[in-house]
């Protein structure tokens, strides 16, 4: 029993699709699309040289064009901070005197937090605006 060339290309496409699913490497998907293009070329009756050329050209073109676009989208995606990381850098209002010893209170993101000053010489009075530098346990370190 003789299997047509286009069937072999489709088997190759599926074979290249499996590592795509297992490793999440998009390059395998691009090679798989190239193999499908090779299958179409074979189904149209072209010889092995045009089939391989179509496979190579389509695969390389996809890698050359799609990969940079995907990388640009991945790198351009804003990273959203959550939890205490989202509180760093925010402004708060002093409710009770804050100094380096702690014991003070601030209103941060609508909640009351204990706070201490970052530097030993700093003191903040009620009503002052402060910047949250870090969160140390349940205490906001401010400046």
From TrEMBL:
Transmembrane segments: 6-22, 52-70
Keyword Calcium: no
Span of domain NfeD-like C-terminal: 85-142
Alphabetized InterPro entries for the sequence: Membrane_assoc_protease, NA-bd_OB-fold, NfeD-like_C
This protein's UniProt keywords: Membrane, Transmembrane, Transmembrane helix
Membrane topology recorded in Swiss-Prot or TrEMBL: Multi-pass membrane protein
Main location class: membrane
Subcellular location: Membrane
Gene Ontology CC, one term: plasma membrane
Protein name: Membrane protein
